[in-house]
Amino acid sequence: xxxxxxxxxxxxxxxxxxxxxxxxxxxxxxxxxxxxxxxxxxxxxxxxxxxxxxxxxxxxxxxxxxxxxxxxxxxxxxxxxxxxxxxxxxxxxxxxxxxxxxxxxxxxxxxxxxxxxxxxxxxxxxxxxxxxxxxxxxxxxxxxxxxxxxxxxxxxxxxxxxxxxxxxxxxxxxxxxxxxxxxxxxxxxxxxxxxxxxxxxxxxxxxxxxxxxxxxxxxxxxxxxxxxxxxxxxxxxxxxxxxxxxxxxxxxxxxxxxxxxxxxxxxxxxxxxxxxxxxxxxxxxxxxxxxxxxxxxxxxxxxxxxxxxxxxxxxxxxxxxxxxxxxxxxxxxxxxxxxxxxxxxxxxxxxxxxxxxxxxxxxxxxxxxxxxxxxxxxxxxxxx
Length: 384
Description:
Layout: H1 3-9, H2 12-21, H3 31-42, H4 45-53, H5 57-67, E1 74-75, H6 76-85, H7 99-107, E2 112-113, E3 122-124, H8 127-142, E4 153-155, H9 160-175, E5 178-179, H10 188-197, H11 223-234, E6 238-239, E7 244-247, H12 249-257, H13 263-275, H14 281-291, E8 296-297, H15 298-306, H16 317-331, E9 335-340, E10 344-349, H17 351-357
Antiparallel strand pairs: 1-3, 2-3, 4-9, 5-7, 6-7, 8-10, 9-10
Helix pairs in contact: 1-3, 2-3, 9-12, 15-16
């Protein structure tokens, strides 16, 4: 529902609090006058933008957690958790209460309780305000970006990752079965043979090298192949029984049909896999899509995004944005990364990337529009 609809369901006391926030001059005993006055004031461009510009960074992080969430209702416990996640610096202060931010958003008319018996304990964001929040913040963020012309050299991997998933399954099929070490990883010889077949070359992880990353096999395998392996494992295309790597029946069927993975499905898996260490990964990707239509410097884009990304153990906000998000988005074919002589590393979202991120990508063999999952699925990982 839009703001006008939610105001019509709000009681007169709540309308009065919102009207007071916007300093509306109207009859406080008339629900109709309160609604009309709030609508004419709160939606006025200069007033709306003024309130956005006046938000603290923690407020913007909390707002960001709501903007790109496809769900329409949130419990108070979930909102409190999101407010707490928006506070990166934990300070011992008995005065700080996460519910204060929720109350603030309610007074601004940005959060409303449901109107039915089933939804009265849930909170909703008006749909038209979501769009306006996104547009205003996009304008603010773009002011900090540095755009460039197309670089002479750039990497654009497009659909190479789905090709390499197919190459990986083909290799296992040809080998019949591949022995695994006691730790569950492939031996060096077979791993090198697989890496040599892939479209994007990676160096093997040096023995004894300290590794930190996301996914089951990140410690043993290089970044991109680690993701490919995890995808095949969780999609049950491969199995690891009795210290042996084999194709499952589903994996064999893929090869018989000659069917490659749908990039939209690979992208959704990446979101799920990275959701635990980076809770707002989907909103960060959405911002990259909005801000990266032209070539922009990674440094200026990173300055904007790092403020929204919480560090995770050994990963700083900067390493999460550059290595975990932008590098993986390049491997997924969502962005291209280049080198500019004057401005250093630059990036641009691909047309394919926009279609995948916005949920309108159609695989040639499927001809079905695929949308992002409405529920986040978290995988149990061994982060070492």
